[in-house]
Amino acid sequence: MAKRRFCWGKLLLGVVLGTLLFFLLVQVGFAIQVAYYSVFNPRITPVMQESLVQLRRERPDAQLQYQWVPYDQISDNLKRAVVAAEDSRFTQHFGVDWEAVQSAWEHNRELARRRAEAAAAGQAPPAGVMRGASTITQQTAKNLFLTNQRSYWRKGQELLIAWMMELIMSKERILELYLNVAEWGHGVFGAQAAARHHFQTDASQLSTRQAAQLAARLPNPRFYDERGVTRYLNARTNTLQARQRHAVIP
Questions:
Q1: Is residue 24 in a domain?
Q2: pLDDT in tens, 77-101
Q3: Whose CA is closest to 210, among 46, 48, 82?
Q4: Helix 76-86 to helix 231-243 angle, to the nearest 10 degrees?
Q5: Same structural domain for residues 106 and 200?
Q6: Do 70 and 104 belong to one domain?
Q7: What is the CATH number of the domain that holds 211?
Q8: Which domain covers residue 104, as residue numbers?
Q9: Do 30 and 161 touch, CB atoms closer than 8 A?
Q10: Average pLDDT value for residue range 47-68
């Protein structure tokens, strides 16, 4: 009996060590990819592939709108608008903005409480939206290496890749990657494709207003691609246009 327990113990130890080794190998693989993308530009990302599959279900010959442009060929207006919209402390944090995480958690908890109270009283739910706290680095990690699928594993992996990116890449390179792989419409990826798709201009020529509207589209680009310019999008654009002057970019 003691021998059998010993064998089960060795088996369990082997499973644990094997799982740990696999996890470490996966992280080494991601680190190698991060080092590669610190120098070379991506041709396509998992999120792009996912979008292309969806497009080709409707139209077999569909193609993505995507063209890489260097950092210095993207308007500073767009850089500032995106930082103002998505990550105002981008140049200050190391991949994760813990202040933003705490603020979002407190806001979401309070909003959830108010909604529960309104539902219990048979009243209309209060206005407001749940906040996210993903930094530009985290979003770049997701867009470049992972998918849009939501899970605790994906979020944890996203955090680890974000830290790798901050260790290996400059802030300028991270923002350059983000602006080139972010989705700005169904099948529309990167600043150049977004500028052409929405405003028939180049990424280098975007005005403050155009840049603010593109930044406002980021949380839900496919929705606005279908619905067009809504009242909320206009209001958000106005807010971001006013904030641009205060945004710090690398």
A1: no
A2: 999 999 999 999 999 988 877 676 6
A3: 82
A4: 110
A5: no
A6: no
A7: 1.10.3810.10
A8: 98-132
A9: yes
A10: 92
Q: Looking at the domain assignment, is residue 242 inside a domain? A: yes
In this structure, what token pair is assigned to residue 226?
């279908």
Asked whether 84 and 246 are in contact (CB, 8 A), the reply is yes
Domain count within the chain: 2
Q: Find the range with the poorest average confidence among 60-74, 91-105, 147-161, 169-183.
A: 91-105
The reply to whether 89 and 177 lie within a common domain is yes
DSSP string covering the chain = -HHHHHHHHHHHHHHHHHHHHHHHHHHHHHHHHHHHHTTS--S--HHHHHHHHHHHHH-TT---EE----GGGS-HHHHHHHHHHH-TTTTTSSS--HHHHHHHHHHHHHHHHHHHHHHHTT-PPPS--PPP---HHHHHHHHHHS-S---HHHHHHHHHHHHHHHHHS-HHHHHHHHHHH-EEETTEESHHHHHHHHHSS-GGG--HHHHHHHHHHTTSHHHHHHH-S-HHHHHHHHHHHHHGGG----
Answer whether residue 55 is part of any domain: yes
pLDDT of residue 1: 45
Residue 25 forms part of a structural domain: no
Tell me, what's the pLDDT at 15? 79
Read off the pLDDT of residues 191-217 as tens digits, 9 standing for 90 and up. Answer: 999 999 999 999 999 999 999 999 999
- Among 172, 244, 249, smallest CA distance to 215 is for 244
Domain co-membership, 118 together with 221? no
Tokens in use for 233? 């999008």
87 and 112 co-located in one domain: no
Average pLDDT of the segment spanning 102-108 = 60
